[in-house]
Amino acid sequence: MTRLAVLTSGGDAPGMNAAIWAVTAAARQRGWDVLGVREGYIGLVAGDAVPVDEPEALRFARYGGTWLGTGRLPDFADRVPDVVDALRRIGADTVVVIGGGGSLAGAALLVRAGVMVAGIPATIDNDVAGSEYALGHDTALNTGVMMADRIRDTAEALPRLFALETLGGDTGFIAQSLALMCGADVLLVPERPVDLDQAAEQARAGVAARRYALIVASEGVPDLDRRLAELAGRLGTRLRFSRLGHAQRGGTPTARDRVMARAFAAAAVDALAEGQSGWTALREGRVTVLPLPPPAAVRPLPDPEPISV
Ligand code: F6P
């Protein structure tokens, strides 16, 4: 009988719990046993896994984070033989890895060692090359929109220069989509050099139109604090800065993240049932299974449309 081990790896993302549930439901439907691995690859190396049943997984599906826990294991490449031993010990013959680009690259090492693995892209940054979507991005964007709306409330009441910093690591997918959706005056992302003259002009136009301007910036922009201070200096205005930080990574997964979790999970389990390893990607709006790993190249930021949701 097939025994599937499911794990979440890297930075947690809303929708991971929904994916654990959907993987469990699809596997159980086929009569497979499911084990939940604790703390990502750290637990996989140690064989730290617990049986998961569908009702239990469903209970957590509506929450952000991941109830299995997650982890980052930089020397995973050296630990693959330990994983093969651990899988033998716990009697698991297939693995589902839910995580970002680094985690899916780790999954490819397992495939090379002869393990059947399906990967599901999940990272709020939505930066997995080769897929238009990764779980968690939509929820993180919705959190950003909610906060930008609140900043506008106060900005309209007491106009000044406002900056909102998003998560995103060294990519600007969250910031770009958020800026487009909330009509920010200025967008700063790590992929493009900061042009302070242009930013000052855009901010000035915002202030001229409504007495305040909103800047959306991704955390990976080099020297962001200094550049924002310089911008405020040029406009001769006080700047109020808000950082979304890790609050942006939590929260109830949106319907889109839950729908995508189910779609990715169904395709992942189908592939494993057909004896195929791979990872599930969204391509031109359709879920497809591609060979592991995802391309190593950095996912390019679209310029300036479409919005990456
Ligand atoms: O998972 C992606 C991400 O949330 C990035 O947006 C962020 O820069 C990073 O992880 C934070 O990582 P950590 O939780 O390890 O500080």
Unreliable residue runs: none
Query: Which ions, cofactors or small ligands are bound in this entry?
Result: 6-O-phosphono-beta-D-fructofuranose
How far the N terminus sits from the C terminus, by CA atoms, comes to: 38 Å
Could you tell me the number of beta strands? 11
Instruction: Note the main sheet.
Output: 7 strands, mixed
CATH architecture of the largest domain: 3-Layer(aba) Sandwich
Kindly state the percentage of residues in helix.
40-55%
CATH class of the largest domain: Alpha Beta
- Beta-strand residue fraction: 15-25%
Predict the CATH topology of the largest domain: Rossmann fold
Query: Structural class of the helices, strands and pairings?
Result: alpha/beta
pLDDT averaged over residues: 96
Shape: elongated
Keywords, separated by commas or semicolons:
309 residues, alpha/beta, Rossmann fold, 7-stranded mixed sheet, 4-stranded parallel sheet, 18% strand, elongated, binds 6-O-phosphono-beta-D-fructofuranose
Tell me what the structure shows:
The chain has two domains: 3-136 and 253-290, 3-Layer(aba) Sandwich (Rossmann fold), CATH 3.40.50; 138-249, Rossmann fold. It has a seven-stranded mixed sheet with strand order 3-2-1-4-5-10-11, sandwiched between helices. α6 packs across α7 (173-182). It is of the alpha/beta class and 309 residues long. The mean pLDDT is 96. α5 (101-112) links the parallel β4 (94-99) and β5 (116-121). The protein has helices at residues 16-29, 41-46, 54-60, 76-90, 101-112, 137-157, 173-182, 196-210, 224-235, 255-273, and strands at 3-8, 33-37, 49-51, 94-99, 116-121, 161-166, 186-188, 213-218, 239-243, 278-283, 286-290. 42% of the residues lie in helices and 18% in strands. It binds 6-O-phosphono-beta-D-fructofuranose. 6-O-phosphono-beta-D-fructofuranose (F6P) is lined by residues 10-11, 123-125, 167-169, 219, 249.
